[in-house]
Amino acid sequence: MRIISQTLVALALVVPVTAPALAQTPLPMAPQGLGVERAAPPPPDSGQAQRERSISFGSLFSDLGHDLTRLPTKANALTLGVGGAIALAVHPADSELTRRATVSLPLDYAFEVGEPAGSGWVQAGGALGTLLIGKATGSRRAQMLGADLVRAQMINAVITQGMKVAVGRSRPNGGRFSFPSGHASSTFANATVLCRHFGWRVGVPAYGLAAYVGASRLQENRHYASDVIFGAALGITAGRTVTVGRGSSQFVVAPIVVPSGAGVMFTRVN
Question: How many Å apart are CA 13 and CA 240, to the nearest integer?
Fold first, then answer.
């Protein structure tokens, strides 16, 4: 269990995500006084107006182009830098960490559902399903959440798969395209979007599931720890990119030096 706990701690170090509350901009109010008419409340939305404001599938691709222009930010560079540094630090122990995880029978039972939970069918399918439910029910909020989830998965897939081909690292079981972990990146992307929309009450269990999926990849002999850690950083980056403006406060990451070592400090900025 010690080796898995070390991996979970490393994953926790690459979660500099935006915190819960959705940003709201107050509407300007007319001054109250004589001679000033107060605006009548708007009429209730008709079904037609609701459908007109429905998020179209075509907008996913048009918004995706705008999302890509927001990728090169300091926050994203910091997340990838921290993730890359931690992945590089554990790289020398990659083989030993995976070997020790795979020989544990209790871990085999504990992480049995990690593979299906982090699969593309579940993560991307859940994102698309949320959008479809929002459209079917006419819920604007569900549609916005679903659209963010789908775009995060699209950006994450492009970056993750591109890096897999470019790096060409072999998996511990002899397979291809080990670095970075797609299971880790996709689950962390969705967790980041959920955290930005609903806050830490939803974000904490979502990140817990993402960390569980990431750790399971070691136990299943499919990935190394460095694959999972950098995959988590990629997923956080993708999720943050499509939810710019969703949060009103954030966690800033900064490296610190401590006696006989170094660490990472998280500071909440309102």
Answer: 16
Structure tokens at 59: 């907008």
Q: How many structural domains does the chain have?
A: 1
Three-state DSSP at 264 gives: strand
pTM for this model (two decimals)? 0.75
Tell me, yes or no, whether 146 lies in a domain: yes
Q: Nearest-5° angle of CA 184, CA 188, CA 190?
A: 125
User: Please, what's the b/e burial string for 30-64 (b: 16 or more CB within 10 A of its CB; e: otherwise)?
Assistant: eeeeeeeeeeeeeeeeeeeeeeeeebeeeebeebe
What is the mean pLDDT, run by run of 10 residues, along the chain of 270 residues? Answer: 52 47 38 40 45 68 79 90 92 90 80 86 93 93 94 94 95 93 95 92 92 90 93 94 69 46 49
Segments forming the whole domain that contains residue 226: 2-12+56-269
Q: How far is CA 146 from CA 70, 194, 197, in A?
A: 19, 10, 11
